Amino acid sequence: MALMKIQTFQKRFVKGDAPDTRTVQGWIDKGKVYGERYGRLYYIDPDRPPETTTSNELVLKVLAAQGNNKGANNGAASNG
Questions:
Q1: Is residue 40 domain-shared with residue 67, that is, in the same domain?
Q2: Structural domain range at position 26
Q3: One domain, residues 8 and 24
C-alpha cells in the first residue's frame, strides 16, 4: 500500500480506538512502523514492515528466508 497521512490511517479504526497523532509520529521516528517525514508532515504505510536493524544472526537468517533482508548488514559482525 502507498504512504498515507496519519489522519487517513486513524480513520481505519473504530471511533475512539485510533492511536493519537503524536503516538504514531513517535512510532515512525523510532522505526516501530514504516513511515516517512517530510518537514512537519508524517506519512505511514501500515502494511509495510519497519526497517530491520538487528545484528542477531538467527533473526537475520529468518528474515532472509522470508525474503525480507532489509538492513541485514546493519551492524552485523562477520565470524569469518
A1: no
A2: 4-44
A3: yes
37 and 57 in a single domain? The answer is no
Q: What pLDDT tens digit does each residue of the chain (80 aa) get? A: 689 999 999 999 998 999 999 999 999 998 889 999 999 999 999 888 777 666 678 877 887 787 654 544 544 454 54
What is the pTM (predicted TM-score) of this model? 0.61
DSSP string, 1-40: ---EEHHHHHTTSPTT-SPPHHHHHHHHHHTSS-EEEETT
Buried b (16+ CB within 10 A) or exposed e, 33-68: bbbeeeeeebbbbeeeebebeeeeeeebeebeeeee
What residue ranges in 31-72 does DSSP mark as E strands? 35-38, 41-44
